[in-house]
Design goal:
The chain is an alpha/beta fold and about 575 residues long. It is built from 18 helices and 21 strands. An eight-stranded mixed β-sheet has the order 6-7-5-4-3-2-1-8, with helices on both faces. A hairpin with a 2-residue loop joins strand 2 (about 50-55) and strand 3. About 45% of the residues are buried.
Length: about 575
């Protein structure tokens, strides 16, 4: 095992070796820099770079540097004006630099493995663009990774570099296609110590729900659910209304064996009556994801241009970019603005008329912020007629259903409102949702809806839940109180921790800069059977340091706080106080 290749993030005592190897290669071997009497080579970005190291046992054999966008500058800035490469301005662009391997290991798997590790690390931090300078003598290595030249070369000393770029999702999809056999071999032989999985998920989308994997997706160890705190998914902490439970337990064998109404007619009628909407404006589905995939497949093509909010619910980026292949732009939110959508910036972005669809999740997941209905309505009314709007109100039940834009969607052919019946009604396991659109749009989507789109237990439960508004109003008020107390207790864990409380059933926790990554924190909490959601893959704006914590009941919230404290104790050990000098005579 001592000869096994392993990958890890650089440790503090790796820095001297990195600077020494850089000097040997780039000053003495290649002549890119003048030799230094100290035999060390570093630069001004060293404090901002993340180094990934390959080693065999205790012997380090290579490294690669990644410069994240939150560093505020790139190595390429010394050679290019950002007008020459606009992607350098994007807050989700990462730079890969200084891929360096010891001379005796250059025919090994170290260099391609380091390139792959850099790509996985960047993807895990929400990176969407990669830039690099590839030395012309080893350009094939960069091209094999999927990077492509932009037609610009850079000369530094005696060395010539080609400027390269690539989209992270394209690179991620391409690596298994080009190097599947190599990846499978490396997966079983490399000791992978990075805080990101070796390979992305099967569909490339971060769905969350690792807690169910711990319980057992084969359902053979369901007893584990009693010790797992599933705060990584946003299921309700409370049970459905008693009338819902009664509906599900009244002759469950009949519910299981009987085909439901083919068009969910009773459920549609109940939604229409409860929400005051015409039935012809409704389309139901097995959860909001079912409706997203079905509707976007009809409303969009690869030529469509879509505007998403960033940070935002990851399913929308997945469907538009990876499934359909649309052109996607993002309206970046700002922590300085408390992650709120600025209606003026939104209006300006849409006014150009370039977008076929604008997606707004309101309240937003993962920021937890809610945009007042009148602000969104004004932005929609001022937008060009060709632009459609998709408003996702999955978490509006935690605010007020009266704030819904569903009445606007029922009459404006540009607007669709999608609403989950899973979250606020505690029906996540049953999968039920509906959307509201103008009659022609709703009719189009119903034509592409298969019969029996919602199971009989789900239809029966949803109808019962819609008839119990008082029960769910009380649960909403309880959730607010639980959320606020959880936020206060998490904020007391460490002065460097930032806790952001929104309006939905979760809070976000951002770890201090220079401390552990969100992935490390999440992993450490799992040792205590507490599962949290790492938000890093959703957006580079989180800088790899933010986790989302679902609100649970008081007992499970206490376990969450305790697990977070234990994780911080391990990952951020307290700095020991200096010993006080001993006064007086020796004893």
């Amino acid at each position: 095992m001592g000869r096994q290749l392993h990958l890890r993030t650089a440790l503090p005592d790796d820095r001297d070796w990195i600077h020494e190897l850089r000097h040997r290669v780039y000053a003495q071997e290649l002549g890119q820099h003048a030799p230094d009497p100290a035999g060390r080579l570093s630069d001004g970005l060293d404090g901002d770079n993340v180094y990934l190291v390959a080693a065999r046992g205790a012997r380090r054999i290579g490294f690669v540097s990644v410069t994240p966008p939150w560093a505020g500058r790139f190595g390429l800035d010394k050679y290019l004006d950002r007008d020459e490469l606009p992607s350098l301005r994007e807050p989700d662009t990462f730079e890969v630099r200084i891929l360096t391997v010891e001379p005796g290991e250059r025919r090994s798997a170290a260099a391609p493995l380091l390139m792959y590790a850099a790509l996985r690390w960047i993807a895990s931090r929400g990176g969407r663009h990669v830039v690099a300078m590839g030395r012309t003598e080893v350009l094939d290595l960069y091209l094999a990774a999927g990077l492509r030249p932009v037609g610009r070369t850079v000369r530094c000393g005696a060395v010539t570099f080609e400027v390269l770029t690539g989209a992270v999702d394209v690179l991620t999809r391409g690596v298994p296609d080009r190097h599947s056999a190599t990846l499978e071999r490396l997966r079983s032989t490399v000791d992978w110590r990075l805080d990101v999985p070796f390979a992305p998920g099967p569909d490339g989308c971060e769905h969350g729900g690792a807690s169910f994997t711990a319980v057992g997706t084969d359902f053979r160890t369901l007893h584990r659910r009693r010790r797992i705190v599933a705060a990584d998914v946003l299921d309700a902490w409370f049970p459905p209304a008693p009338e819902v439970s009664a509906a599900l337990t009244d002759d469950p064998s009949w519910l299981a064996r009987t085909s439901p109404p083919a068009g969910a007619e009773g459920l549609v009628a109940e939604i229409a009556a409860t929400r005051g909407l015409p039935e012809e404006t409704l389309c139901v589905g097995a959860g909001s994801s079912d409706l997203i995939y079905r509707a976007f497949g009809q409303l969009l093509t690869p030529e469509s241009r879509v505007l998403l909010i960033d940070p935002g619910y990851g399913e929308y980026a997945h469907v538009t970019e990876r499934v359909i292949g649309c052109h996607v732009d993002r309206l970046r939110l700002r922590r300085a603005d408390d992650w709120r959508i600025d209606p003026h910036r939104l209006t300006e972005a849409v006014a150009t008329g370039r977008y076929d669809l604008v997606v707004v999740v309101n309240p937003n997941n993962p920021t937890g912020r809610h945009t007042p209905a009148d602000e969104l309505r004004a932005a929609i009314e001022s937008a060009p007629d060709r632009t459609r709007w998709w408003i996702d109100e999955a978490y509006l039940g935690y605010v007020d259903e009266a704030a819904s834009l569903a009445p606007l969607a029922a009459t404006d052919p540009r607007v669709v409102v999608c609403t989950s019946l899973s979250k606020m009604y505690a029906l996540s396991g049953l999968r039920a949702a509906y959307l509201v659109a103008a009659p022609d749009t709703a009719a189009l989507l119903r034509r592409w809806t298969p019969p029996w789109p919602v199971s009989l237990p789900a239809q029966r439960a949803a109808v019962a839940a819609l008839g119990e508004p008082e029960y769910y109003r009380e649960r909403r008020l309880q959730t607010r109180a639980l959320r606020h107390r959880l936020a206060l207790e998490l904020a007391e864990l460490d002065e460097g921790v930032l806790v952001e409380e929104g309006v939905a059933n979760f809070v976000n926790v951002t770890l201090p800069a220079g401390g552990p990554s969100a992935a490390q924190f999440v992993h450490e909490c799992r040792r205590h059977d507490v599962y949290l959601r790492d938000l890093s893959p959703l957006s580079a704006l989180y800088e790899g340091r933010t986790v989302r914590v679902a609100v649970k009941d008081a007992a499970e919230n206490a376990r969450i706080v305790a697990a977070c404290q234990a994780a911080l104790d391990v990952l951020v050990p307290p700095v020991p106080l200096p010993a006080e000098p001993v006064s007086g005579a020796a004893r």
